[in-house]
């Protein structure tokens, strides 16, 4: 097993798991261990744990974190699950909110890798659903990998009305697409594209673009900046409460992106406009955004794989 004779050093603890850095001899690779304590103690947590394990075991892409090994420890009766992954030094949240100087090339390279990973992920038929800077791991040479697939779903399981767990999950409200905030009937991979747009804007601004303090303020903030949703969107909203929030804003026209992100270049604003559309039908997919001029220095379809047909 990959874990023979390693020293585990506690690094962090979050709501769902513990992560450890593991140092081995110089000739061996350093890895990270994600511990999911009491993984089967509750039905919801068990589903989340098994989902992440299943998805990550199947995915193979440079910009998606890979599971190298998986095990349970002696004496735990299989209650705790340990997932062994490549060691990544930090995450995009830490970088964005540090004092480190970030330039346009950083924004382009991070966005390119995120979209490259999403192009592959969506071709597999998987929606991540919890994209945020802290779930984008980064190492010293700026390699970015998408992580934390506990909220992921296949595109066949994305009907909001039957997915109450996600609609009640508020920790990532700032990155949640209108389809989810508005309780629309259905959603698909475009929710990840919205999150990517929020993350990209946060890189440029060095702060969150839509930091609502609760569900009401989040919805009203989107309407204030992006305008009143079109009728096709309004007709898909299943919550009378949300409809009331939107209608209470009155008729709003969208603000120009240049006013919202005055420091962004013209090509960067084009990307933002493609990603941060309230209507999912007007929002671009990963493949289309990769082909925009902003990413021309990196874009090469030959090196942006999709999942081969089975």
UniProtKB/TrEMBL annotation:
GO molecular function, one term: MAP kinase activity
Pfam families: Pkinase (PF00069)
SMART domains on file: S_TKc
Designated name of the protein: mitogen-activated protein kinase
Alphabetical list of Gene3D superfamilies matching this protein: Phosphorylase Kinase, domain 1, Transferase(Phosphotransferase) domain 1
Domain of life where this protein originates: Eukaryota
Catalytic activity reported: L-threonyl-[protein] + ATP = O-phospho-L-threonyl-[protein] + ADP + H(+); L-seryl-[protein] + ATP = O-phospho-L-seryl-[protein] + ADP + H(+)
Domain Protein kinase residue range list: 1-295
Regions that span the bilayer: none
Keywords: ATP-binding, Kinase, Nucleotide-binding, Serine/threonine-protein kinase, Transferase
The species this protein was found in: Nippostrongylus brasiliensis (Rat hookworm)
Alphabetized SUPFAM superfamilies for the sequence: Protein kinase-like (PK-like)
GO cellular component entries: cytoplasm
């Amino acid at each position: 097993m990959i874990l023979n004779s390693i020293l585990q050093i506690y690094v962090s603890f979050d709501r769902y798991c513990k992560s450890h850095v593991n140092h081995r001899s110089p000739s061996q690779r350093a890895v990270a261990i994600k511990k999911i304590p009491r993984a089967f103690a509750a039905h919801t947590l068990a589903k989340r744990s098994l989902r992440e394990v299943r998805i990550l075991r199947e995915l193979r892409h440079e910009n998606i974190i890979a599971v190298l090994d998986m095990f349970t420890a002696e004496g735990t009766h299989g209650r705790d699950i340990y997932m062994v992954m490549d060691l990544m030094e930090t995450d995009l949240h830490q970088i964005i909110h540090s004092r480190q100087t970030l330039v346009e090339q950083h924004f382009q390279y991070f966005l390119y890798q995120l979209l490259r990973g999403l192009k592959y992920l969506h071709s597999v038929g998987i929606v991540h659903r919890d994209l945020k800077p802290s779930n984008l791991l980064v190492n010293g040479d700026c390699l970015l990998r998408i992580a934390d697939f506990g909220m992921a779903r296949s595109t066949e399981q994305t009907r909001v009305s039957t997915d109450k767990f996600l609609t009640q999950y508020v920790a990532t409200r700032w990155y949640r697409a209108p389809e989810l905030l508005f309780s629309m009937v259905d959603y698909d991979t475009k929710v990840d594209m919205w999150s990517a747009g929020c993350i990209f804007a946060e890189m440029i601004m060095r702060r969150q673009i839509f930091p609502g303090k609760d569900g009401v303020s989040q919805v009203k903030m989107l309407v204030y900046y992006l305008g009143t949703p079109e009728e096709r969107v309004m007709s898909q909203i299943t919550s009378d409460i949300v409809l009331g929030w939107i209608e209470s804003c009155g008729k709003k026209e969208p603000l120009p992106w240049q006013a919202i992100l005055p420091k962004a270049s013209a090509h960067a604003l084009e990307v933002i406009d493609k990603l941060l559309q309230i209507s999912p039908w007007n929002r671009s997919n990963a493949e289309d955004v990769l082909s925009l001029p902003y990413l021309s220095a990196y874009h090469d379809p030959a090196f942006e794989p999709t999942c081969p047909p089975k």
